[in-house]
Each structure stands twice: as structure tokens, then as C-alpha cells.
Amino acid sequence: MKQSQTLIPTLREIPADAEVRSHQLLLKAGFIRQNASGVYSYMPLGKRVLQKVETIVREEMDQAGAVELLMPALQQAELWQESGRWYTYGPELMRVKDRHERDFALGATHEEVITSLVRDEVKSYKRLPLTLYQIQTKFRDEKRPRFGLLRGREFVMKDAYSFHSSHGSLDEVYQKLFTAYNNVFTRCGLNFRAVIADSGAMGGKDTHEFMVLSDVGEDTIAYSDSSNYAANIEMAPVNPTYSKSEEALKEIEKVETQNQKTIAEVSEFLNVDAEKCIKTLVFQVDDKNVLVLVRGDHEVNDTKLKNLFEASSVELASPEKTKEIVGCSVGSLGPIGVKNIEVVADFAVEAIVNGVCGANEEHFHYINVNPERDFTINKYEDLRFIQEGDSSPDGEGSIVFAKGIEVGHVFKLGTRYSEAMNALYLDENGKSQPMIMGCYGIGVSRTVAAVAEQYNDENGFTWPANIAPYHLHIIAVNMKDQVQAELSEMLYKDLTKNRFEVLLDDRGERPGVKFADSDLIGLPIRITVGKKASDGIVELKIRKTGEMFEVHQNELLEKITSIIQTL
Hints:
- It is built from 14 helices and 31 strands.
- The protein folds into three domains: 3-237 and 401-452, Bira Bifunctional Protein, Domain 2 (BirA Bifunctional Protein, domain 2, 2-Layer Sandwich), CATH 3.30.930; 253-381, YbaK protein (Alpha-Beta Complex), CATH 3.90.960; 470-564, Anticodon-binding domain (Rossmann fold), CATH 3.40.50.800.
- By secondary structure, the protein is α+β, with helices and mostly antiparallel strands.
- The protein is globular and about 95 Å long.
- The mean pLDDT is 95.
- It is an enzyme of class 6 (ligase).
């Protein structure tokens, strides 16, 4: 492609509202343009990168045995009402009415549509398993669109759905697609982790997220420094290996702690470590109240609490609600003497000897508190967030934290949607059974942004070769110089004929502008045709490393071929 014939509207300044590096550079280098908050046009360069990611996704999905189809973005409300999500999905679902006042939704996801399709077309176990996928625009009315393509209201997504007659079959396909996802993100050149995750509103269990490591990520990943273990921070279990002090138990004593309410204030006032304090909180778990105890230097993990009680919702009680339930304020709350409420504690609490807790009386705490002797706990469980430096749950190494951008998610949905929507098949015995389902998503446009976050420097992008918009950027330093213009044109045709994707800068701009734009766009190899063109010599620059070579035109093809294979 000749640069004079395409649209690459580079900017000299970074737009003021672009907060993160990928957003800044995608705008500045002319890859995208914003149409509305969270809604973008893909300019020619951006569209080429998007298509290359889509191609990688298609190749890996096809290799895993999935079949592509395309479903409507405009979905009937009745399907969402069947699954129950029309009433529970929330304001992110964009709802519209047609001229007859019938309700529709713009597709945020396609579980309902695919389930209705398969239930109408597949009736026998002989047609299962079946895995279908699409690459399509999705719509979600994000409360706060931000970071460009990382969180938009309109985005490109690959969503796949598998249907099975047994959990064993689901496990097999899940593993195939798990492997496919690893291949996709590896081929995109990303530094990522597959992490154990919570299925949230999607339902189901046994789910993994694929997280690209990045400081701008909105999720925290806990991963081992010595193995492949990784989990979302709320899902990482803690090894309950707490040593209990051998010190003699002391008599419990009530002490005044005037205006000392937080763990930090109480521990400093009493000159004790926070790990000897017992943090006591009231949670509302569905329709019951639960008193939760953790060590003072730990935080309650509400996802673990929710999973323990198999609850639909878990919420920390407000100070007013806490006082109503247990009769004292949050700053003085403790487990001693409380009645008519279930008490659960993290495993670390069991190891506390001569600890500190609230006395359920304003401005007072107990010291020399010992679990079981001074109060009863109904159940010990892993209820806290894992911390950096904790032993890895797999027993290998220690936990390190990193921020991550979610680019993919795989779920085992089970029969959540098939039962609600009556998607049944006849088994070997002619008995009707609900189909067992899996769901697998990749944020295609978000993957583009994630690569942009990891592949850039102070001058612009440093795209990996397999998803760069073009492989080569030919710069004719002076298009008015006939020798340079003719050599540039000849190299352009020859390299294109040899299946390289080439962008030729044939504009009449100053050399400085051309070089700055070239660094900004970030194609893997730049070929500069300049003063030595009359001798058939050009300059090669590897964008990522900055390495430069002078190469004769007769050796150019061989040299470029060997370089590209290493990028």
C-alpha cells in the first residue's frame, strides 16, 4: 500500500483525554478515532491489526474443532426473559424498542441466542458435542468507558459455545479451547497468565481468565514466582499453615481504648502487632447475618465467603445495620458474648494466642483473648485474601502480585441456560436431558489494545511482526530524486510479490516527518532509500531494537526474510 493512497492521520500531540499508553498511541498514530464515549472507528491501520488478531483466533478455534457462524446483534427480549437475565443483567444491557413497541437488546453476549438456535436444531445425543463460535461487535453500556479500546461501549469479541451430553465431554472441549487460547495469546506476543477466576453473573463453575500483565490492568493477579500457578486475587486459596505460639494463656482483661477504633489505632495504642488482633465484621449473606473473623493484618475475601455459603449475594453490613444486629458500633465489635448469629473465622484466627478483640462496648477492648476458650466459632475456613509473600497454593514458591487486563475467559456453564430455556436432547435410552454447556470469550479489540500496551517505546509502537499492520515500511527520503523514487517503487513491487506486506511512504513530506511517523506507526522493519540509492544500497532498521544495517538491493530479500523470522 502506498501511503499517499491510504488514510493514516497521525497527530503531533497526544489527546488530553487519553489516559493510558495504548489509547494515546492508537489515537496519535492514526489507528483509531473516537466517535462517541467508548465508541471508536478503526482507521485503515487499526483495521488491519484487528483483522490479523481475528485471523489468529479463527485459525486456533478451527484447529480446536469449533465451527464459525454469525448471530444477530439485535436480540429479542423474550429470549433474555426465558433465561431470567432480562431482569437481572443490569443497566449495561442496551435495550431498544422497534416501531411496534417490542423490546430488543443489543447483544452484550449471546448465550440466549445460541441456546435457542441449538435447542431448535439439535435433538439427539448423536449430534453432540458441538462447538460454535462467532466474531462480532458487542454492546455494553459501560458506566465509565475508559482507556480507549480496553473498556468501550462497542467492541469486537469472539464468543464460542459448546454443547455436550456429558461432563466428561465438556471437560475435553474445555481443555482444547484452553489450549487454543494459550496459543492465540502466545502468537499475539503477549506476556499473559491463565488465572483461576470467579464466574460471577455468567453462572457455572471451573472458569479461567486470560490476563495480560500490565500496570493499567483493573484486576489483581496472584501468581507464583516459581511455577505456572496464577489466580485472580479473590479466587486464590491460602495454605492454612499457621504456627501457634507456645506461650501460656493469660487471663482475659477488659481495657479502655478511648477513641481507638481501627486495627492500626488499637494495635499501636496497646503496643501489640496487628496479627495478634481479631478483626470482627458483620456480613449480610443473602437473608442471614454472619459474624466473620479474620486476623488484624488480613482482609475478608467476600468471594470466598459467598462460595462458602453458596450465596447469591454477600454485602458488608453498614455501621447502622451492624449496631442494629449486634448492639454496638463497628470500632468496638468483637465475638465474645454475641448471640443469635453464626460465627465463622479464617484459619489464621485459630492460631492467635492472647490476642485482642473488641469488647462490644464503646471505647473498650479485650486483651489476652483466646479462641474457643473465650468464644465459640461455628466454622473455620479460608476466608481471607492472599497476600504477597504467602506460599503459593500449589506449594511451589511464593505469591507475587501483578495488575492484569482480561482478554479472554472460559466457563463451564453446566445446565444454567439449557434448563432455563428448555434446550433438551434425547440420550441413548431415549430419555430427555438438558444439554451441558461451555462458554468461551476473547476480547478481540481489547487484545489489540493489550498488545499496544506491551509493545511501545517513547517514539511509538513496536508491533510484533505477525500482527503488525504491515511487515515493512519503505521510506523514500526524497521522492523528487528519480533514482530514489524508482528504487523505492522497484523494491515495493518486488517485496510485495514475495508475499511481504509493504507500506511505501511516497509522500512529499520532509524526511524528519517521515521518520517520525514511521517510528510512531511502528512497523517491524524500516527500509530507507536515500543517498546511496544510486549504488543500490539501502538502510534497514529493526524498529524494536533500533539495530541498523546497510544492505545491497540484491541481498535485501534474504536479509529481510532472516530478520522477520526472529521478530
